[in-house]
User: What shape does this take?
Amino acid sequence: MKKLLLILLSSVVAMGVVAQNQQPAQKNTSVRIALHNSTQQNQIIPREIYGQFAEHLGRCIYGGIWVGEDSEIPNEKGYRVDVLEALKALKIPVLRWPGGCFADEYHWMDGIGPREQRPKMVNTNWGGTVEDNSFGTHEFLDFCELLGCEPYVNANVGSGSVEEMAKWVEYMTSDADSPMANLRRKNGREKPWKVKYLGVGNENWGCGGNMTPEYYSDLYRRYATFCKNYSGNRLYKIACGASDYDYNWTDVLMRRVGNQMQALSLHYYTVMDWGRKGSATQFNVDDWYATMGKCVEIETVLKRHCEIMDRYDPSRRIGLLLDEWGTWWDEELGTVRGHLYQQNTLRDAMVAALSFNIFHKYTYRLKMTNIAQMINVLQSMILTRDDEMVLTPTYYLFKMYAAHQGAEYLPLHFESAKLRDKNRREVELLSATASRAEDGTITVSLANVDVENECRVTIALDDDKKYSVKGSILSAGTIDAYNTFDKPNEVKCENFTSFTSEKGSVEVVLPAKSIVSLTLK
Assistant: This one.
């Protein structure tokens, strides 16, 4: 009898979850945007919130960014022309390199000088791949100059020395008559580069050394001390921060390092189960909502880490950098194990939209994010195959959201229908963000998470102007749609016109499973 009761109870609970997931979507809602007298007025969304990450992992660097000057693939000084032009269109503000886990086994002097003389190395973290070090310091920093973005160099604490890190900073940034500056000149670069962002180690709680926060804190203080400011270059020193829910790591670093760092990093991936991550392309509606539930949990994580930092740094001088984030699925069948090559569907673009809508709210402390990763790895912008290139749904989402870079964050208020995913996480079916550029243009980005129902939204502004509106939409016929080399345009931005503008408001009809961005002038 007890066993029968347990079975019946389990069935009732399961039915309850299904019932919640099948509740009718909210068909009409109002999004109110505060243009004046906001408590968060003048909170700027840093351009660096839209940062990228390129690790020596799989085909991100070799075959993705770099093919070499002798390649038959069209290139500019060794950089793929098609990739370079696609990345320029995203207005990338900052690029993190060389890792990731690779950073704490990378010795920078192996990647300078004549390429044919550089020693090879085994990438022990990612597939045991043998690399020839043809892409090193000069290639990375010159690439950043071509893109017009800030370089973020992550230096080696795990297996490197204080002297090695200090000399790297001197090599890159000093204009003096000094050994490292003269070595750089010998290798073909007369003037130093400007390098603002310096990461002192990566994931030192794991692949970067399996350290305790107390031990790493002492190492950080030591290593950072010898990283000097040369020739007018001022370093923004970043301490290795926590993974996900490790609030103790943040507490210890804030308490023990404090004013000796300019920022603290954080990593958060949208992963359902680290043992069985699931397919990037084969999933159902329940999986879609579960992914969104895990994605939006980043808000709780950000809030908790920010609260800890506020206790030690109430003036908010120290930045929080989410320098790894994104979806992580099982590798595609037939690809090299450890290269983390995965496809990219509408689901991934929706994760990016919900993430940015959250990130914008916390830019009083959150100063940079770097999606993992830029090309051919995890939630990438671009996939390449020999001389072919395809843009992913996430690429188009980044392009849609580019107008938010450097704009003033505009708080908004709305109520959304909710459901519980299969893991009992709460998922709001509507997500939104808004910002205002210096010229007064307002950008409103809306995401309808509901896979079946459209959502009618009234955007209410606290003025009586009638705005000229233009829109774009990212959606597809199915939630698992993605772009391939044979069909590269299955998911891409289109013009959007399902709106009407009145004085002080804009009426919008959001299709199911869609992301819409509107510009109001």
The chain has two domains: 23-41+411-520, 47-406. Residues 291 and 402 are 24 Å apart (CA to CA). Confidence is low (pLDDT under 50) at residues 1-25. DSSP finds eleven helices and 27 strands in the chain.
